[in-house]
Amino acid sequence: MDKSTAPLTSRTITQMGLFLALIIVSGMFALPIPGLGVPVVLQNMVIMLAGGLLGKKVGLLTNGLFLLLAFAGLPLLAGGRGGAAVFLSPSSGFLLGYLVCVPVISSLSGWLGTQHFWQLFIVYVIGGALCINFFGSFSLAYYSHLSWANGLKMAAAFVPLDMVKAALAAWLQLRLQGILHFETK
């Protein structure tokens, strides 16, 4: 049986549940940014780690389930937000970036490798911080009634802190990938 069509094992489902719980708990820590309508969160770091540790298929399923539950109205997003209205707000592009970053991180990990901190740091900066903020720039621009260039400048405000999160994610992955033996598919 092909790995991409193999049924999910109990180990994989447990890992998905663990990451779903971590994503939800990390949403409790949010720092509102006046004027932007989008808080600084730890959730995106855990979302990035799901792509790095769970891989493309399982990471995408986990992040997709998280977003589906938030869309259904559960208050899982930063600051206890949830519901369809959040997906029509300045945060919507960032939420789309949560999905897109997983295959980007997984692909970059395969290409660059995951043995060294700097490899993972580059993966998380490009596939995580820059990718999520790139998609977030569109919704920031749209809901602020500004040009996309201005939305990009607004999203760039998140990049320095997201670089710190990328470094922390790289460090965590180095420590966890050998211990927990994640099956990246």
TrEMBL record:
<protein>
    <recommendedName>
        <fullName>Biotin transporter</fullName>
    </recommendedName>
</protein>
<keyword id="KW-0812">Transmembrane</keyword>
<keyword id="KW-0472">Membrane</keyword>
<feature type="transmembrane region" description="Helical">
    <location>
        <begin position="94"/>
        <end position="114"/>
    </location>
</feature>
<dbReference type="InterPro" id="IPR003784">
    <property type="entry name" value="BioY"/>
</dbReference>
<keyword id="KW-1003">Cell membrane</keyword>
<dbReference type="Pfam" id="PF02632">
    <property type="entry name" value="BioY"/>
</dbReference>
<keyword id="KW-1133">Transmembrane helix</keyword>
<keyword id="KW-0813">Transport</keyword>
<comment type="similarity">
    <text>Belongs to the BioY family.</text>
</comment>
<feature type="transmembrane region" description="Helical">
    <location>
        <begin position="66"/>
        <end position="88"/>
    </location>
</feature>
<feature type="transmembrane region" description="Helical">
    <location>
        <begin position="121"/>
        <end position="143"/>
    </location>
</feature>
